[in-house]
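Q: For a teaching session next week I want to show students how multiple molecules come together into a single three-dimensional assembly. I've collected the sequence lines for a complex. Could you give me the predicted structure tokens for the whole thing so I can convert them for display?
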Amino acid sequence: MIELLVNSVSIPMVAFLIVSLIMFFAGVFGFLTRKNLIMILISVELILNSVDINFAVFNRYLFPEQMEGLFFALFGIAIAACETAVAIAIIINIYRRFGNVDVDNVNKLKG
Amino acid sequence: MDFSDFLYMRSELSLLIVVIFLLLYDIIAGKKSMVYFQPIAIVLFAIHTIVTIIPYGTGEAFGGMYQNYPMMTVVKSILNIATFIVFLQAKNWFDTDKFKNERGEFYFLTLITLLGMYFMISSGNFLLFYIGLEMASIPMATLIALDKKNLKSAEAGIKYILSAAFSSGIMLFGISYIYGTSGTLYFNDLPQLIHNTDPLQIMGFVFFIVGLFFKISLVPFHLWTADVYEGAPTNVTSYLSVVSKGSASFVLMTLLYKVFVNLIVEWQTILFWIIIISITLANLFAIRQKNMKRFLAFSSISQAGYILLGIIGGTAYGMTTLVYYIFVYVFSNLAAFGVISTIENKSGKLNIDEYKGLYSTNPILSFVMMLAMFSLGGIPPFAGFFSKFFIFSAAAQQGFYLLVIIAVLNTIISLYYYLLVIKAMFIEHNEKPIPAIKSDTYSNVGLVICSAGILLVGIFSFFMESINQYSFGI
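A: Of course. Below is the structure for the complete assembly, covering every listed component.
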């Protein structure tokens, strides 16, 4: 068990950062290409979660004596939940009108 | 335990008392006493504005988490005045049967966003800054989608919340790299740990600043603006265009001045191009708008570009001119939106073409609109001219001559489209102009305050001087 713990710490920090970077850009890509409002919301969540990974990893590896990064990650999760709740509420309102949540319907406002 | 830290937070505490009182009133009060809800809300908020209007001392609370400077109190007072005018204009809107049930929510949500902006302005740590930012933007989405039966409102709401979440995600990603390279989130400790030799830090900074540009809606990040402004209820749009934008640009300035001092070369380059693109493109797009709200959306994007001219110099004088510009912009923009919302509430008309011949039926409303357009465009006797002049001089003092010349040329383009509205109202004829409108006392008071602001703030040097004595540079 202890050996497992030590091994997990020996993963280089860059590995975690690459994972979070991939998550971040997957989120950006999804946000720009997806046609379903729920999928867009999931992509935004992906971005916010990649940020949480970053904070936790930086805190654990570089500044383990303070807890700032972990607290930021916790607050980030809570606020992301609030954001999702409001977005879902508005999406439900749109769903009641159209019966689906496709972005192609949401195009009444044009210049 | 020492509670003296709370003394620095008196604006927040006072606003919190108003918020909680109004929330309880909305929950407890019956149908009969809800008639008095709006007058009580307006009076309470006016008392809050007056109580906290005097700037008070420099100080920190909670180990540097919360900072207060007299300048921040000045900005909060300006936001208070703007919110007060928005409340006056919204009274009429909530007297209609359609929106009767939403009035409690409107006041509550608006004040919560204002509280979030207070925290954002006074934050001394990225965590509090982020919480304040989200506190300002999540209730804002619900405000935009307040008109539940209207599909445009819901569409604007979803567009706002998704782009706000996306931009705050990008901003957080930047903050995480700033944290990773410096090891702290406190604004007091960061300046010594930020260097322009660290590429990761610069990347974090760029990601971070992009998130704020989304909030101020500058050009490469402005795509949500026009749709949200058009879809949102008019009173919410006026709140969004003035209060949200003003607070975000002030926060951008304090952050650049205090935290990212060492990256001054980088952010001056970024701001230089952003200002040029914002002002020019927004002006060109504003010319071809037919809807008044979309038109003012693009006008507000170009105004945001002008606001940034105060930041780029990095001087104390730049801060004075920026706050003064926001102060004048509050009156000019709210006068325009006041007229629009009055006309929309009574006749439902929003297009510039429908404003033709407005002068023949509603001379006073068209006169106020004319004042607003002249002030936004920067015609001399009005306040808008002085704010533009000061902000140009702030940038020119630091040697940004090319930028100032481009901005001045753009002022001429902007005059063209501001005068188009005036031409439609005063010169062009219309068989069926908008019938004579009798606006209620509350919106009249709001329009009188705005007109007085446009006429007096520029001429009396008192405002500029009193802002000037609190400003600080890099």
